[in-house]
């Protein structure tokens, strides 16, 4: 089957880069996600390619034609050609010799079907050559059209080879699936859920993030709950219904906000999954219980909150508070109005610093911090409205009071 039109859907710079690569490696094919997304008429992220030549020979041929190439994963047969600043990963055809549930020992092969056999799902196992011919050994095109996400071969065996495929199944089903999910796959996942314990926490978090920001999140999370996956990757406990309400109410599609709604102990999850300091800090801010923005707050009270917390954090906390219990339409409207009021408040900036205390005769040391703290609290109590002159007058009042005491 010829699909010249598939290649023509790529942007001209990518077509030109591929034409040059094919002139050097004529047996090379487009593989995996790029073929799937071209068939599905979706945006293309990365372009992956495969070729029968061993990686050292691939590098030699590319360099002989002045193509910049990087040995990004020689043990896995992968090199990266850089064309006009864009990367094109080229991997030698492989078949597995042995696996340990995550990593595989591979050997090179010239058998395209054997290489396709080691891919996870039928929709990811297709390839297209330079003439636009589609190679589809496992009916991936039909599955893509029907919204079926099926493992290549026996689901249980593929999961035993690499437990990450459990999480990838849910991610791809969320994006490409329609109708009832593959029952053989769900049964194999339910039976093999303990294999998830062997995955690195970093890979678990990477896949969970992608699931949380993907489409059909509520349905996917329910499938993960029903198969025991959710409890396995969130052993601290989960609050699925709160997360579903968060989605139903229209909260932004941020992974950390959705995780904060899903997890019963977000900070414990952050530590276990080795999240970055920034991610952990945001989760801590989202789950800080006080002070909580409230629909009855005055503008001054809201301004005090905005002085200490970014708008997105405060809005996130409002979303989480809203999703904590089922709400009526009137209540949801009140929460929406509260967020709107917050967005209309420009973050106030405390107009003085320690140098102002020193300039007015204050002594360097802890006393500067004490005075600044007192003035800032006075500024907050007044709704963050006082300007620099009024704050300096307050400094003077405190310094005069200190002097009178001594």
TrEMBL record:
This is CCA tRNA nucleotidyltransferase. It comes from Acetobacter lambici. The keyword Metal-binding applies. It holds the Pfam family PolyA_pol. The lineage of its organism: Bacteria, Pseudomonadati, Pseudomonadota, Alphaproteobacteria, Acetobacterales. It comes from the Bacteria. Keywords: Magnesium, Metal-binding, Nucleotide-binding, Nucleotidyltransferase, RNA-binding, Transferase, tRNA processing. Residues 29-150 form the Poly A polymerase head domain. The keyword Kinase does not apply. InterPro entries: Bact_CCA-adding_enz_type3_sf, NT_sf, PolA_pol_head_dom, PolyA_RNA-bd. Residues 186-237 form the tRNA nucleotidyltransferase/poly(A) polymerase RNA and SrmB- binding domain. Its cofactor is Mg(2+). Belongs to the tRNA nucleotidyltransferase/poly(A) polymerase family.
């Amino acid at each position: 089957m010829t699909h010249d039109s598939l290649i023509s859907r790529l942007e001209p710079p990518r077509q030109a880069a591929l034409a040059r690569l094919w002139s050097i490696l004529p047996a090379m094919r487009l593989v995996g996600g790029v073929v799937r997304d071209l068939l599905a008429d979706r945006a293309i992220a990365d372009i992956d390619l495969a070729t029968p030549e061993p990686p050292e020979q691939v590098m030699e041929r590319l360099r002989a034609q002045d193509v910049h190439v990087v040995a990004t994963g020689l043990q896995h047969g992968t090199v990266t050609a850089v064309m006009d600043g864009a990367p094109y990963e080229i991997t030698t055809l492989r078949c597995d010799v042995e696996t340990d549930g995550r990593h595989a020992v591979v050997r090179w092969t010239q058998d395209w079907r054997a290489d396709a056999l080691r891919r996870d799902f039928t929709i990811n196992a297709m390839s297209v050559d330079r003439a636009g011919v589609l190679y589809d050994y496992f009916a991936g095109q039909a599955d893509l059209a029907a919204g079926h996400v099926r493992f290549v071969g026996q689901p249980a065996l593929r999961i035993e080879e690499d437990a990450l495929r459990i999480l990838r199944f849910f991610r791809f089903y969320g994006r490409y699936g329609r109708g009832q999910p593959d029952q053989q796959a769900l049964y194999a996942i339910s039976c093999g859920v303990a294999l998830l314990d062997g995955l690195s926490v970093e890979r678990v978090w990477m896949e969970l993030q992608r699931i949380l920001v993907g489409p059909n999140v509520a349905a996917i999370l329910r499938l993960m709950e029903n198969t025991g996956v959710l409890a396995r990757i969130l052993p601290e406990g989960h609050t699925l219904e709160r997360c579903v309400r968060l989605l139903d109410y229209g909260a932004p599609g941020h992974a950390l906000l959705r995780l904060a709604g899903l997890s019963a102990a977000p900070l414990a999850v952050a530590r276990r999954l080795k999240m970055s300091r920034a991610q952990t800090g945001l989760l801590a801010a989202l789950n800080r219980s006080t002070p909580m923005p409230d629909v009855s707050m005055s503008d001054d009270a809201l301004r005090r909150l905005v002085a200490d917390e970014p708008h997105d954090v405060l809005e996130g906390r409002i979303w989480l508070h809203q999703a904590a219990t089922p709400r009526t339409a009137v209540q949801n409207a009140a929460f929406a109005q509260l967020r709107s009021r917050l967005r209309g408040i420009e973050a106030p900036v405390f107009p003085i610093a320690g140098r102002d205390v020193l300039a007015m005769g204050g002594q360097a040391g802890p006393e500067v911090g004490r005075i600044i703290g007192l003035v800032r609290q006075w500024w907050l109590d007044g709704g963050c409205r006082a300007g620099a002159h009024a704050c300096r007058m307050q400094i003077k009042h405190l310094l005069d009071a200190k002097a009178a005491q001594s």
